[in-house]
Specification:
single chain; alpha/beta; Rossmann fold; seven-stranded parallel beta sheet
């Protein structure tokens, strides 16, 4: 079976959640599908990165979409119905090329990642499946709640456009996937198949204790919900933990930290940006803490931390996509809960060991990439069969 995959970013290196999801999907889908990857990229793609994807794809096509061209597309669509998330990544010439590649490759099915790529499915000539992944309209709504002035108006408008666009394009696809039950409810669309993320348990695994930090937060620091989480952690949660544990230390690690995050560095707060191997951040830390109240989707950082043997404290919003029990993840509904759970884990050795064991077992037994992608592969085959039966 031959599969064309269209993505709005080149899925390597693994510095964002969408890249990580698609990379591992390609890695395991390649065992049963012949894959042609078509990636749109607004940043340079190195030969090394291409070679990493060529291990799993028969063909790799990259279409460069310079940021200035995308900005021009945005300006043209300010007063139109297309969401910024879509108009930024859309180009008519690329659309034409994608159709030509799909035809020449003689693909049986096309798989489009994120609502950003939905327009490229028009007239593709073969059955198409879309991975909405997250509820992008909900992300925009939550960004609006935490913004003010013109930014608030922009996000509110974007949320409305995205919600309308999501409803309009859904009928262009024979299959639709989403990352979690929570995002399925938020999207409110019919016939969505939940395909959650996994974690590479052979890569992320416990190592010898060399703890330097009591707490850590790991994530893409260029992402607004993560920035808000870090600021809340540093400004409102950490001082109260520090009152109970005066020498408490915090590590904040991840790609693209803006100046406002870098400036949080202090005697007890360390910033580790653009880490070559993110496992180093986990293995230097004792407890993972993630006060994320905005955004949507599934937080890969939680799965990675559990697989590395770190007890995790996070919000009910984050846990809604994981479904962990209180023994597996400590869930906080307020900053008060974050303080209590963090202090309990740092001082209660038995609680720490129990939480570590239960979280590790959860990652190993329920979140292997192989099982998640096998589920996706079966779903893609069913979509292909459904299309064939209609011919």
């Amino acid at each position: 079976m031959r599969l064309v995959v269209v993505s709005s970013r080149f899925p390597y290196p693994l510095i964002t959640g969408d890249r990580l999801r698609l990379f591992h999907q390609l890695r395991f889908l390649s065992k049963t599908w012949e894959i042609c990857l078509i990636a749109i990229s607004d940043s340079p793609v190195t030969l090394e990165h291409r070679e990493e994807l060529e291990k799993y794809c028969n063909e790799v096509h990259v279409f460069s979409l310079p940021k200035w061209k995308s900005a021009a597309s945005l300006s043209k669509n300010v007063f139109k119905s297309l969401p910024f998330q879509v108009s930024y990544f859309y180009n008519k010439l690329i659309h034409r090329s994608i159709k030509e590649i799909a035809q020449s490759y003689k693909a049986d099915l096309a798989y489009f990642q994120l609502v950003r790529t939905a327009l490229y499915a028009k007239d593709i000539g073969i059955p198409a499946v879309i991975d909405f992944m997250d509820s992008f309209s909900t992300i925009a709504e939550r960004d609006a709640e935490f913004s003010s002035g013109i930014r608030r108006i922009v996000f509110q408008n974007e949320a409305k456009k995205l919600k309308q666009f999501e409803r309009e394009v859904v009928n262009d696809f024979v299959g639709k996937t989403v990352i979690s039950e929570n995002d399925k409810l938020l999207l409110g669309l019919a016939d969505l198949k939940v395909i959650s993320n996994g974690v590479d348990i052979n890569y992320f695994k416990p190592e010898d204790d060399i703890t330097e930090f009591d707490l850590c937060f790991v994530g893409n620091l260029g992402y607004a919900p993560n920035q808000r989480a870090v600021q809340n952690l540093v400004e409102k949660i950490l001082p109260r933990i520090q009152y109970r544990k005066p020498n408490v230390s915090l590590l904040i690690a991840g790609a693209r930290p803006p100046h406002k995050i870098q400036n949080l560095s202090s005697s007890n707060i360390s910033i580790m940006g653009d880490v070559d191997d993110i496992r180093n951040a986990y293995k230097l830390s004792r407890v993972f803490i993630a006060p994320i109240y905005t955004g949507a989707g599934q937080q890969n950082k939680i799965l990675e931390a559990m697989a590395m043997g770190l007890p995790c404290v996070t919000t009910h919003i984050v846990n809604s996509s994981i479904g962990a029990s209180p023994e597996e993840i400590k869930v906080a509904f307020s900053n008060d809960d974050f303080v209590k759970h963090a202090v309990d884990l740092l001082y209660d050795k038995n609680l720490f060991i129990e939480q570590r064991y239960c979280g590790l077992e959860l990652a190993r037994t329920r979140f292997s990439w192989a099982s998640k992608v096998n589920k996706l592969s079966d779903y893609l085959k069913s979509c292909l069969d459904k299309s064939s039966s209609k011919l």
